[in-house]
Each structure stands twice: as structure tokens, then as C-alpha cells.
Design a protein that fits this description.
It is a single chain. By secondary structure, the chain is mainly beta. It contains no helices and ten strands. The strands form two sheets. It has a five-stranded parallel beta sheet with strand order 1-3-5-10-7, with no helix packed on it. It has a five-stranded mixed beta sheet with strand order 2-4-9-6-8, with no helix packed on it. The N and C termini lie far apart (28 Å).
Length: 110
């Protein structure tokens, strides 16, 4: 069963096993850390285009699509793993996304 959450402000912690996660953060985002973790499920996170965030992404055997500009992967400690750490719009709230065997999409909202 997919997990669909809208109009979130945070802080949030979402953990899933074999379910897709769709979460939309609104423009009144909290400054508290956020975490999304999934095994065998995809993640779609929608954030305001002007969000100020410190983003940390970890992927094992999954793809990444982003409307936000991301750096090249930082390191590959073992086959199939990728890690990204970056600031969006100068940095701010901590957002961590971890996925094993699932894709991650980061989308901009107005």
C-alpha cells in the first residue's frame, strides 16, 4: 500500500518496507530534521522551489531524478551505492533520504 502524505511542515520521519512513499512539504517548512527511509519502495519528495535545505541522499540499487541541481555523487563505497550531500538555496533544514532497491524523485513545487 503506497504512503501518500500532503501539506507537511515537519518534522517528519517516514520508514517503509515494500511501499512507495509520496510526500509533499508545504512552504511553511519546519527547521526540524526530516528523514525518509525505504527498502524496496520508491520515494517522491516534493519541496517548495525556494526551500533552504541541507540534503543527504543515500541510494543502493536505485535511480535518482531531481528538479533541484545536485552535485555528482560523492563516493561509491561499494557497487551500486551512491551518496549525495548538498545545500539547496544556501542550506537550512536537514533532509535525509535513504533508499535500498528503490528510486528517488525530488520535485519542485511553487
Amino acid at each position: 500500500v503506497p504512503i501518500k502524505l500532503k501539506n507537511l511542515t515537519g518534522p517528519i520521519v517516514i520508514n517503509s518496507l515494500s511501499s512507495d512513499i509520496s510526500a509533499e512539504i508545504n512552504s511553511k517548512i519546519s527547521n526540524k530534521p526530516m528523514s525518509i527511509n525505504t527498502v524496496s519502495g520508491d520515494v517522491m519528495l516534493a519541496l517548495p522551489a525556494n526551500v533552504k535545505a541541507d540534503l543527504s541522499i543515500s541510494l543502493i540499487s536505485g535511480g535518482l531524478e531531481s528538479d533541484f541541481e545536485l552535485p555528482e555523487e560523492e563516493h561509491n563505497s561499494y557497487i551500486g551505492s551512491r551518496f549525495y550531500n548538498t545545500e539547496i538555496n544556501g542550506g537550512g533544514v536537514s533532509i535525509m533520504i535513504n533508499s535500498v532497491s528503490g528510486d528517488i524523485q525530488l520535485r519542485k513545487t511553487k
